[in-house]
Amino acid sequence: MAEHLTAQQTAELAARAKAVRRSIVAMVTEAKSGHPGGSLSAADILTTLYFAVMNISPETARDPGRDRFVLSKGHAAPVLYATLAEKGFFPKEELLTLRQINSRLQGHPEMKNIPGVEMSTGSLGQGLSAACGMALGGKLSRADYRVYAVLGDGELEEGMIWESAMFAAHYKLDNLTAFVDFNGLQIDGPVSEVMSPLPIPEKWRAFNWHVLEIDGHDYNAIYDAVQTAKTVQGKPTMIVAHTVKGKGVGKMENVAEWHGKAPSREECELFLADLED
């Protein structure tokens, strides 16, 4: 694997991320419900992981040596579904069945019926625990796969997160790399006002994690941070990714209202045009 992304790889990731964002807006609009803001903020992280980092594909989805990904903030399911469809796990047309009766694509990821979903998530705090279990399993079986997880910054208000933080450090899970999607907003407003988890990097360092801070919309920064995490021994790594809620859609950016609100048809057309620009 290259030490840094090439200009061509970066351009390809940008194109993939744009497609993922367009799918997010379209599918949430069609469903008339969902969580677009935090899905859009995490799009660059998932795109980089699935298209430049992880050893995973539709063909290797059951390979014991595959890398694992857990979306701990399960309400952001649209970004995971859109990324999996972009990767070829299921047809993109299926994205428009989000939250519909008899659809596989429920409002939160479900591992039994959706190809590529490693863990059912949605009860905030539990996804990181599952990722810890996967990482410990890899250690015990001497496997060389790696585990990745994405957490919400509001999710850090859950006590279970900090139990997992202790667990991962205690068992020296250096095959675990997690991200905090630090967009600063949750459904009720700024995380600093609802139940402040700040300062985030210092907390994870105190729990004996290796901590990196990056721009969560910079593909090279995301990629380089993950590569650095692979060199860390005896500690899990937390990448605190500074992001923008609703990234890519001007009228959604940094607006808490779009945490769990679906666009109208008219808004959808405007937002898709915004993404194209």
From TrEMBL:
User: Known Pfam families for this protein?
Assistant: Transketolase_N (PF00456)
Kindly indicate whether the keyword Coiled coil belongs to this entry.
no
Q: So which domain of life are we looking at?
A: Bacteria
SUPFAM superfamilies reported in the protein's UniProt record: Thiamin diphosphate-binding fold (THDP-binding) (SSF52518)
UniProt entry keywords in alphabetical sequence: Thiamine pyrophosphate
Residue intervals of the Transketolase N-terminal domain: 17-267
Which coenzyme or cofactor does it need?
Answer: thiamine diphosphate
Q: Which InterPro entries match?
A: THDP-binding, Transketolase_N
Q: Which PANTHER family match?
A: TRANSKETOLASE N-TERMINAL SECTION-RELATED (PTHR47514:SF1)
Which family, according to the similarity comment?
A: Belongs to the transketolase family.
What this protein is called in its record is Transketolase N-terminal domain-containing protein
Which organism does this sequence originate in?
Answer: Lucifera butyrica
